[in-house]
Design a protein that fits this description.
CATH architecture of the largest domain: 2-Layer Sandwich
CATH superfamily of the largest domain: Histidine kinase-like ATPase, C-terminal domain
Strand order of the largest sheet: 6-8-9-11-10
Bound molecules: adenosine-5'-triphosphate, magnesium ion
Largest sheet: 5 strands, mixed
Strand content: 15-25%
Helix content: 55-70%
Number of strands: 11
CATH class of the largest domain: Alpha Beta
Amino acid sequence: MAKESQKLANKSIDLIKKRSTINLVIVSIAFVIALASVYFTRIIVEQLKERELGIITLYAKSLEFTVNQNNPDELAFVVQEIMTPNNSIPVIQTNGLGQVISTKNVKVDPALDEEERESFLKDELEEMKLEYEPIEIPFRNENGEVYDYQYIYYKNSLLLSRLEYYPHVQLSVIAIFGIIAYIAFNYSKSAEQNRVWVGLAKETAHQLGTPISSLMAWVEYFKEDETLNNKEIIGELEKDVQRLEMITARFSNIGSVPVLNYENLPECVAGTISYLKRRVSKKVEINLKANPSDIRARINKPLFDWVIENICKNAVDSMGGVGKIDINIKRAIDEKIIIDISDTGKGIQKSKIKDVFLPGYTTKARGWGLGLTLVKRIIEKNHEGKIFVRNTEINEGTTFRILLRS
Ligand SMILES: Nc1ncnc2c1ncn2[C@@H]1O[C@H](COP(=O)(O)OP(=O)(O)OP(=O)(O)O)[C@@H](O)[C@H]1O
Ligand SMILES: [Mg+2]
């Protein structure tokens, strides 16, 4: 039986680990696809850039050729066949002094007046200067000597600019969609798990209700009957009934939105300790230190007692029945309350610290690996607190820390 439960627990741990490996694989594949998409678009962009540069160079060369020729036929040919086909790359032509002579594919708002137009073109020119070096067109006299220059400034066509941005926009949209889908999926998964927890707990509390009231009635009956009234047995019976009532209270609280009340923490913990002391070996020493002695926090008592009991039971298990448990309650500077529970047990391997809170993780033959999962749920979900392994050393001991709001 114990072996079976161990097997089951190991299986559930395997499942959790497998799921996180699958997640990792999916994320890695997505990353590779994203990189490949960016890489290939880059290649296309580079090729297109080269092409555009080719067109511009041809454009500049044609201009150079035209201005240095006096043949009107050739001029017409150059304008028709070479310059006009460029209907996408924005170009500004300036003279040697940097003044704009002509533009092509630069969209100027016709509503602008002369001054605004000039300043717009100046800005456009600055932008082009930042993008590419201008192409120089030398002007030559009959002897072939250069006597002036003109410059062709240009920038990427709209198509090229869009193509450069495209993968980034595409990837951002996909990433945002992916994140939203992931959150929604996780939310629905945890909502489903929540429903299972809550439903099971509620049902258990409900089912326990009937036999407990019946037991209570029996105890009353025994008390009244002279022949059956054995004080010792009835006392024990009453304690068992109380214990069952406590279990019902725990289940019914975890199965609903538990009510939090201001309670004196050291007092609550002392109550749990005295209950535990009766049940564990005399060789286990349990000490409580609280400074100040009255530290109040908003807690649900039945659930909080369950937390302390679970952690202490684990501590007792970890030291094989001989050792010391120290519980230290104090107030932190930021108004938080710290509860440290230290034991002198066998400790937790560093690589397993993260696993101890997972459902199904156990190293015990008869364990279910649910104690700490429940503890974490109660502290984080019901009390908006935190719990973690503060410190652990193999064969020296472990300290669990709980942080609560005051
Ligand atoms: N104080 C501790 N010292 C050493 N190991 C610990 C301690 N507390 C927890 N562990 C380890 O974490 C595991 C999970 O603890 P958890 O309380 O969740 O389950 P469990 O005690 O094995 O079973 P159960 O469901 O009955 O509580 C334990 O099996 C143990 O290996
Ligand atoms: Mg346990």
